[in-house]
From TrEMBL:
GO biological processes: DNA transposition
Domain Transposase IS4-like per the UniProt entry, residue ranges: 15-56
Coiled-coil positions: none
Annotated protein name in UniProt: Transposase DDE domain-containing protein
Source species: Aureimonas jatrophae
A molecular function (GO) term: transposase activity
Lineage, uppermost ranks: Bacteria, Pseudomonadati, Pseudomonadota, Alphaproteobacteria, Hyphomicrobiales
A Pfam family this chain is assigned to: DDE_Tnp_1
UniProt-listed InterPro entries: Transposase_11
Amino acid sequence: MRHRLDRMPNAMRIRRRTVEHVFGTIKDWMGRSHFKTRRLPNVGTEMSLHVLAYNMKRAIALLGTIRLMAAMRG
């Protein structure tokens, strides 16, 4: 890990800009609280639903609803 960071010193900065934003947004939607469910499978399902909602909102923002619906229909 250290070797890769030495070769690409800006890698962590780029990663934070692209990845951490997503988790920050999802955490905001959750009200900056803990998961509502218990047990790992249930928490995994809850997180998957949050990620799905984030991806759907992002796709609508990028494509618009008409193009997204057309793409989903095939």
